[in-house]
# Entry
Amino acid sequence: MNLIKEKIEKLKKERNAVILAHYYEPLEIQQIADIVGDSLELARKSKNTDADVLVFCGVSFMGESAALLCPDKKVLLPAPNAGCYMADTITPDDVIKLKNKHPDSAVVCYINSTAATKAVSDICCTSSNAVKVVRSLKEDSVIFIPDKNLGAYVASKVTDKQFYFHPNGCCPIHDKLSAKDVEACKALHPDAEILVHPECSAEVCKMADFIGSTSQIIDYSKDSACGEFIICTEQGVTERMAMLMPEKKFYIPSEKQLFCDSMKAITLKMVASTLENMSGEVIVDSALREAALKPIERMLAL
Ligand code: SF4
# Structure
């Protein structure tokens, strides 16, 4: 073990801390994490750990969600300024305008959003449970925010409800991946299955052999008899799959466009410094916490 990893291990014990990392983090961060997962797994597991300190290797909305769920723990972000482009595509005012326009609709808010946006929503969802969440609602219409691509995917599965979207809401990393990129990759690897995250555009989703969240994509590739895959989501997932399944082949359809620089902002040095200085604490105001927690807890109760 190198010096920086030893230092992190020592500080973790001293602080009674655990390190959580999203699948989009650099592989070296995933490798030192105690818990690696997608948004839903990280939200659930942060709640259940008995550590005093959570070092959250992800973007700011993830740290906020952990702080909302675990008010008795200190949540530290090694890169507190690393935000999510998708979360920033919508404001609470935008949501209120949509609610005024469609007053009988339920507001379903993807977890990739700020606490302020969650606070004006009815229920949260993740990419792994979005269809289940929407099916659970009694309302006949849904305002699905912020991701119009995930919303369109859910709408294709839940055809008995009316959907309304925010026109600018999407993840630019997933949205920019084009059908042409995927076609070019498939031409090079004709036997590979195409696995797609629902944050991708409808034209890319149409080409998929399987559509699912990052965890579902990983599980699918483990169970599939196929030996090669084109992975249409952030490349951290592809790197993790290649590490977990060295006997299978994984291809990134577009290296330039599947790289989230916010998710790649954290280094081992930053994790060590966060633990050493107990810096980057996420503080959520109590009124905001009360309002933003309700839609998350409603989702977790499902
Ligand atoms: S990959 Fe997209 S949704 Fe995920 S953190 Fe980056 S900008 Fe946000």
About this structure: The first strand starts at residue 17 and ends at 22.
